[in-house]
Amino acid sequence: MDTLLARGLSCVTVLDVSEAALERARTRLGPRASAVDWLRADVTGDWHSNPVDVWHDRAVFHFLTDPADRASYLKHVAATVKPGGHLIVATFAADGPERCSGLPVVRYSPEALADEFRDYATPIRTAEERHVTPTGVVQAFTYSLMRARQRPSGTGLRTEA
């Protein structure tokens, strides 16, 4: 978010379930925090945002082990990301950890992640990375850059650009 603001972007929304995390980010940004729309919400819950060009999720989607939560997340993607906009989604890779912070996760190959988003976005590029945590643990990640699809009329989802 710091880089986006430094580049002059004026429509930045940050969503987090933790008010403490949002407050730390606001404090770090100082006066620039007023340029950000701050949403304290569960990404699968009841919230809305102005339309966005880019949706960036670094390691949230893999925590959604319930199919209903993934469906809710994807409906928010469809309602929030402008058609033709981009999604950047990072999850644990197929050979990544089975748990994180004591919680179960869903692991994804590039193909499995594309399949989850198939009705909402088209993959452009994928990459796999070995991330080293501050404690020295290596975790395998799958990254996917996708383009949001135009929503068909009559779906009840936003279709304008």
Characterise this structure:
The chain has helices spanning 2-6, 19-29, 67-80, 110-116, and strands at 12-16, 36-40, 52-58, 81-92, 99-100, 103-104, 121-132, 138-148. The chain has a four-stranded mixed beta sheet, with helices on one face. A two-stranded parallel sheet has the order 1-2. It has a two-stranded antiparallel sheet with strand order 5-6. It is α/β, with parallel strands linked by helices and 161 residues long.
Q: Tags for this entry?
A:
161 residues; alpha/beta; four-stranded mixed beta sheet; 23% helix; 35% strand; globular
Task: Give a short summary of the structure.
With 161 residues, the protein is an alpha/beta fold. It is built from 4 helices and 8 strands; from the N terminus they run αβαββαβββαββ. The radius of gyration is 16 Å and the shape is globular.
Within the largest sheet, what's the order of strands?
A: 3-4-8-7
The total count of helices amounts to 4
List the helices and strands in order: HEHEEHEEEHEE
Overall pLDDT = 91
Q: Share of helix among residues?
A: 10-25%
Q: From the helix content, strand content and strand pairing, which structural class follows?
A: alpha/beta
| Model regions low in confidence, pLDDT < 50 over at least 5 residues | 154-161
Radius of gyration: 16 Å
Gap between N and C termini: 23 Å
Counting DSSP E segments of at least 2 residues, the number of strands comes to 8
Q: Estimate the global geometry from the Cα principal axes.
A: globular
Beta-strand content estimate: 25-35%
Q: How does the major sheet shape up?
A: 4 strands, mixed
